Amino acid sequence: MSVNPMAYEAQFFGFTPQTCMLRVYIAFQDYLFEMMLVVETVILKKLDGFPGCKISPCQIRKSTEKFLLFMKEHFDKLFSKMEEVLLQLVLNIPENVLLPEDKVHEQYPYTKEQFQALQDEIQQLQQQYRAEASAGQALQAELEEQKAVQAELEKILQWFDGLDNICREHGTSNFKESFAFLTQNSKKLQDVLKDVEEKSKKIKKHDQLL
């Protein structure tokens, strides 16, 4: 059997030529064995018609095996020649022939160095893509955070609007006046609270004296 891997032929046929030849060899060999068994069976039947024949079935089997070995030796020689012819002339793709799917290599030839440079460029592009994807995720997270802050600011503005409406109901016209109004009322409440606390202390001291 040929030791040439014949990878290009395997790409075209879908199987290696050596595998094909091996299967053909096995098929021929099996057929040869079956044929010799048929011949042996026919001889035994013919001998049954001659009662005085002194040839035993064991002798016939030995003769059959000897003849089979002779046939196999000659078959191997013939098959070796047939294999050489088929692998060279039938199952072989000439070196100057390109398969249709490999035509692109003829149009755009690349050296080993150019191919390696292309691989390096692809790797760099992949790294850039991963970096941009990571930056995009960071921007998306920042956008979500800005949306949350905007929602809080809208709540604060709504609170101020409500506060402004309350102040208008009490006679103030704008936010500054409303804020001043609230500050004034808050101060009054603090004064009242302080006065209450002082009176409470005086009452406690009076109770203690009694």
UniProtKB/TrEMBL annotation:
Superkingdom of this protein's organism: Eukaryota
Protein name in the entry: Protein MIS12 homolog
GO biological process, one term: kinetochore assembly
Pfam families: Mis12 (PF05859)
Residue ranges the record marks as coiled coil: 108-142, 179-206
GO cellular component: MIS12/MIND type complex; nucleus
Subcellular location: Chromosome, Centromere, Kinetochore
Family of this protein: Belongs to the mis12 family.
InterPro entries: Centromere_Mis12
Keywords: Cell cycle, Cell division, Centromere, Chromosome, Coiled coil, Kinetochore, Mitosis
